[in-house]
Every structure is written in structure tokens, then in C-alpha cells.
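EI: anyone free to look at a 278-residue chain?
SC: sure, send it
EI:
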Amino acid sequence: MSSGFAGNDKQLTLKALVARIPDGASLALGGSFLHRGPFAVVRELIRQKKTGLEIIKQSPGYDIDILCRAGAVRKVRAGIVAMEGNFGLAPWYRKAIEKGEAQLEEHACASLTAGLRAAAFGVPFQPCGGLHGSDLPALNGWKCLDDPYGQGDPVYVIPAITPDFAVIHASAIDQLGNVWVAGTSHWDRIMSRAAKSVLVLAEELVDTEKFKASPEATLVPHFMVEAFTIMPGGAWPGSAWPRYKIDYPAVESYLLPGDEALENHMAAAPELKEATYG
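SC: here you go
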């Protein structure tokens, strides 16, 4: 696929990046709650009317809520789901699960991470502590195995979880596709290793010399990245530290009921003002 950008087939417009994601795909979305999520990609999934998506994330909020509001989700694998303390629960996500419009595979953050680790390490399952006494193993059919070395208690094992795509919002990327994130990477690293492919939304394009100077700071190496787009403000209405904070009024406006509120929110998105959108 030609990107329309000279010299690098990996750099695409936002529309072209999201067009690579087919209906029914499983997506691991980076970030946490309202912080450094690939939200411009999430909104473009809605504009392109993608359907039947499986969303995988330890702590989703705005992303899963707006996708459920648009009717794009068939299944969710998640730990805690919320719009954070200022805004409470994710209302459209909750409605979708209650009405059976989307299927929920409920996890603890640790059990979802264990499933992703199993995929990343190329093994069929991964042990996970802390699940004894919980209803989650019975709900999900997770098995409990004896310690083969006889040194500890039985442990639950989580089946491998292999997303079709890990979609990450990065602080910076170079032309080769090396990814850098300022501050905490949340679960982005393990998502990128577990997924079949990695798509990146980045705040800025930087010279490769930045990565050569500090190679240990590379979160995702270029050979794992299928494609990327440069999209300043792509985590709006969430934060992307240290560039910008959460846009609290925008989140409040999004949470208003009705189709008009959603349309107004989508129309206010910063990606629509960027040359790399079309």
C-alpha cells in the first residue's frame, strides 16, 4: 500500500492507517483511562463505521465508551473500566454490556497482562497470582494447576491473548518507526509484543539520532511497527504528558446524552484540523 509520503512506506495519513483495520479485528489499545490513549484512531474507527471490534485493555474508559456508544464493539476484554474519578463510570459501555450488545470477558488487570505475556512469550498460558477467592476463574473457565515443583500452592493460568493490532499513542517516532514515550508506558510494551501488528499514532516525528543517542529509551523498535501517522493532539480529550492535560470541559460535553452531543464532540476533534488526517 502506498502511503503518499516520499521515502517511507510506513508513514500514513490517519484515514489510511485506520483503513488497515478490518471489521471484526481485535485491538489492544494503549494508554490508561484518559491518559495517552490513541483516541484519534478510536474516533476514526467510528467515522469509517468499523464494526464487530474486540477491544483489549487493562484500564479503558473514554475509548471503550465512545466505541460502544457508536455500536462498533462485539467483545471487550478489560480489567477496570471507568471515566476516572471526575466523571464516574463509563455509561455507554455499561449500557452495551447490560443490553448484551457487547460481550464482556472480565479480567483483573493482572490476568489480562498474563494473557498478553503468554502471547508475547510464545507459550499457551501464563500463571497469574491473586485470583483465589475470585469468581473470575469460574466465569472465564480458567484452569488451576498444581506447582510441578511442589514448592507452592496451585496457581491459575490464563490463556494467551493475541490481539490482531496493538494501537499505541507515542510521544515521538522516527521515519523508521522507532517509538518513544515520555513518562510511564502503562501496558503498551507488552501489548506491542503480544500483538500480530503494531500501529502508532505519534505527537511528532523526530530524527533517528534521538534513538541512537538513547537506544534503551526505545519502547517499540521499528521492525515491529507496521505503520504510523503523525497526529499532534491525538490523545485528546485525554492527556499526553508533558504536552497537554486532560480537556475536562470536552469530556463533560462528550458525556451529555443524545446523538447531537456525540456529533459535536466528534466535530471538535483536533485531528480534523491536521494535514495528516485526510
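EI: Residues 1-7 have pLDDT under 50 and may be disordered.
SC: 👍
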